[in-house]
Amino acid sequence: MAPKNTFLPIRAQMLVFCLAFFACAPKTQEKTADVPDFTLPSFRLVPTDTFHFNNFVDCNMAEAWVGDTLRIFPGKYGEDPVWGFAEDLKFASGANADEVFSTPAEKYIAPTLPKNAPVGQPGLHGAVWFETVYQDTRDPSGRTLFAIYHNENYPETLPFNPDTGEGYINENWPLGLTDRITPAAVPRIGVMKSTDGGWNWENKGLFLEDKQPRMILKPHNISKTFAGGVGDPSAVAVGDYLYLFYGEYGYPGVYQASTYSPVTEASGQCISVARIKISDLENPQGKAKRWDGKGFSADWDGIGSPISSLQIPKEKGGGPASSPQGGFHWGPSVSWNTYLECWVMLMGHVEGQSWIGDKLYISFNPHRDLGEGSNSQAWTSPQLLVQKPGHVLWYPSLQPLNTAEDIAEKNTSLKLGKRARLFFKYSDLGTYLSEFIVEFEK
């Protein structure tokens, strides 16, 4: 996608920043209705010199410390009949966050990744993006990594298989992102494993998937986003489980044009959560469970229930993912904040076709144990974090700083402290950068 670049006069940009700054600083003692016993943290955006990331980013930033080296894995890899075959999933390493994020594109290293399987045969199909890296704590060397990846396919790369129910039927298929007549993609979420710190990867299988009956087709799907599916995940480990927060874009039931309801569609969408035992990452397919409204009981390819506090009500502009008006949060990036002692989630906001949206939001969850009761659902109502009118903002994340504390604690986008650097992508400009540090207060 290549929308026209849109710039605001400097004075207008400063006004927008000031408004966003004051909107994003709730009083420390304010209580939230979502979590009654939780005092909502305050936060402020501290402007900095622009920190440009020097390579292609189109996802959450997957990263881990391998020994004393911070390693990041941005980019895209694999077959894509719309955008072309990609070989941009590479890694860079450094002694601290500033060093690795400043790495020039030509210094990135291409790991060995599994090849795409022929159409109709088992194996890896479509393109992948690494969204989170889980570092196996059972390996003291830190070299055993599990990459949670976003995977996109089309009826051309993954045609429907009636024996397995996997794949898609090219009939009434909705249009995708480009200005050309091209099909919409369907995301899935899978797992790869490396035992050498990210140099070589083996595909282990799927984490979550929505199948053909849940695809939202013509004439109703005119959003130019996805046909359905699950994607854009962020995963955190708690105890014996890996908890996956992800975007849900499918219909919460069997889509039929004759009985389609936009209200029903929207009720099953937004940001959802599933979990899998860490011991099952070696062979994940069929092992994960989605939250079903009461517990982690829905199947990996079944119908779960989204986090209701993150859904946007219709009266506030909420709507289904297939709508040209949008109206939903997506692209979660979750971290544990050691200073606040709570979870922090950043997310995007779709308010038009082709993932248009100029705002990023933040939410908090005070419960360290996401598996107890309904703790995984106890997120505060999203607050505006930043807005850039005239632009399209994707993939927000909090990143460690080049400080002695962050280096000693080996902080990553999954674990941070009082201050963190905010990165996000200007999709309309094709750049991933940081203009602010976020500073939290209890």
TrEMBL record:
Q: Which UniProt keywords apply?
A: Signal
Task: Identify the stretch annotated as signal peptide in this record.
Answer: 1-25
The molecule here is called DUF4185 domain-containing protein
